Amino acid sequence: MNRATAELVTAFGAVTFRSAHGASVVSEGAIDVARAAAEAARFEPFDLAHRGRYAFSDARVPEPVVTELVALGALCTGRRLGLRQHRWVRMVRGDYALEADDAAWVPTVSSDTSPPLDVTLDVSTRETGEAEVVFTRGGAAFFTVAQRPGEVGLVERSPGVARYERYLTHRVGDAQVVRLRLWLAVL
Amino acid sequence: MLLDPRRWNVERLRESWAAASPFPHVAIDGFVEPAALSQLVAAFDDEPADNIQDEIFDVMASAAQPAHAAFREVYDALSSVVVLDAVSAVTQHIVRGVEMRAYAYLLGHYLLPHADRDLDGRRAVAYAFYVGHLDGLAGGELDLYRCDLAGGEIVRTEVAETIHPAENRCVLFEVSPRSLHRVREVTAGGRLSLAGWFAR
């Protein structure tokens, strides 16, 4: 375990609503493989104003990427996890994803089972300074994952936790934000 | 008199409101005495405001009750019986009170698509009074959406009406779950408005 990963694991367990983010916690090789998979994927546009605007793909996630992210999730939670669902999301200027969209995509979270883990891997090539992933509980933001290449965010999705992705303004120019989102659950 | 609804053609406005698509709305131009506009624009320089950010917005906003005397004068006018009666006549919603904040949409500011929440059932009519622009405004238009439903779910949305934030224009629109609207991102200049709700 490298230092960045150790810090991530410590940070994850140190907060009430277990969550952490960091860079250098996934190998450069895995990020390159993920980026190549995203570039080869066929994205479909999504545009429902009350939920969001972006492009998405359900293209397969390369096994080495799944393996690293599942192992990272297991380190943080201390549980054996498996991939339940995933989605590639690409956002450009004018795009966004609201909590209503999150609610439509994620499975219902039961309070009597171990909470699943919401994992985000940023495979963009540029940092925009926008498009943060924000997690809320009871309407209040408690955790934010910055948009930067290689950034990983992990959030335990207890009941009541929601997620949105902030709007990309004209300032991002022609930048593309590409993220892999995984939903990991106890095996 | 800052705001005199006796100059409104209430019958025409009511017809326009009722016939409007995608949901009831109407724009009233020449909303206040033109001579008052410069003072209102200047008031934005003195009004305390915070950059508020949330899931759906990024904008400069005053406190829930603006402090500047010029804004208080608008609030008092909107709260007057003559204006409330006129708004009730136009919208066919009986309104008895007003909420108002001052908003400055500056570069990169926006309000994403949403339907106003009316958790306590009081807000009946939303309004936005466009006080003025900052140099070279681009963006800041109010988009109203048409929503197609299937099985109670929204399955398609499209912008059906775009209202330019013309100086001294006030837009009224109905608060309802289907009143999906947004303010387009400001990409140049700025948009100054007083906005809120007429309440039951």
Query: Could you state the oligomeric state of the chains shown?
Result: heterodimer
Rg of chain B, alpha carbons:
16 Å
Instruction: Using the alpha-carbon principal axes, give the shape of chain B.
Output: globular
Mean pLDDT of chain A: 94
Morphology call of chain A? globular
N-to-C span of chain A: 23 Å
Describe the biggest sheet of chain B?
A: 11 strands, antiparallel
**Radius of gyration of CA atoms of chain A, rounded to a whole number:** 15 Å
Briefly characterize the structure.
The complex is a heterodimer of chains A (187) and B (200). By secondary structure, chain A is α+β, with helices and mostly antiparallel strands.
Set out the fold topology:
The complex is a heterodimer of chains A (187) and B (200).
Chain A lengths: L2 H11 L5 E4 L5 H13 L3 E5 L3 E6 L5 H15 L3 E11 L4 E2 L1 H7 L11 E6 L10 E5 L2 E6 L6 E5 L4 E5 L11 E10 L1
Chain B lengths: L9 H10 L5 E5 L7 H10 L3 E4 L3 E5 L7 H10 L2 H11 L5 E9 L4 E5 L8 E16 L3 E9 L2 E11 L5 E6 L6 E3 L4 E12 L1
Helix pairs in contact in B: 1-4
Overview of the molecule:
The complex is a heterodimer of chains A (187) and B (200). By secondary structure, chain A is of the alpha+beta class. Chain A is built from four helices and eleven strands; from the N terminus they run αβαββαββαββββββ. Chain A has helices at residues 3-13, 28-40, 63-77, 99-105, and strands at residues 19-22, 44-48, 52-57, 81-91, 96-97, 117-122, 133-137, 140-145, 152-156, 161-165, 177-186. In chain A, the strands form two sheets. In chain A, strands 1, 2, 3, 4, 5, 6, 9 and 11 form an eight-stranded antiparallel β-sheet that branches. Chain A has a three-stranded antiparallel β-sheet with strand order 8-7-10. In chain A, strand 2 and strand 3 (52-57) form a beta hairpin. The relative contact order of chain A is 0.24. Chain B is of the alpha+beta class and 200 residues long. Chain B has helices spanning 10-19, 37-46, 69-78, 81-91; strands spanning 25-29, 50-53, 57-61, 97-105, 110-114, 123-138, 142-150, 153-163, 169-174, 181-183, 188-199. In chain B, strands 1, 2, 3, 4, 5, 6, 7, 8, 9, 10 and 11 form an eleven-stranded antiparallel β-sheet that branches. In chain B, a hairpin with a 3-residue loop joins strand 2 (50-53) and strand 3. The chains are: A alpha+beta (187), B alpha+beta (200). The interface between A and B is medium-sized, with 15 and 19 residues.
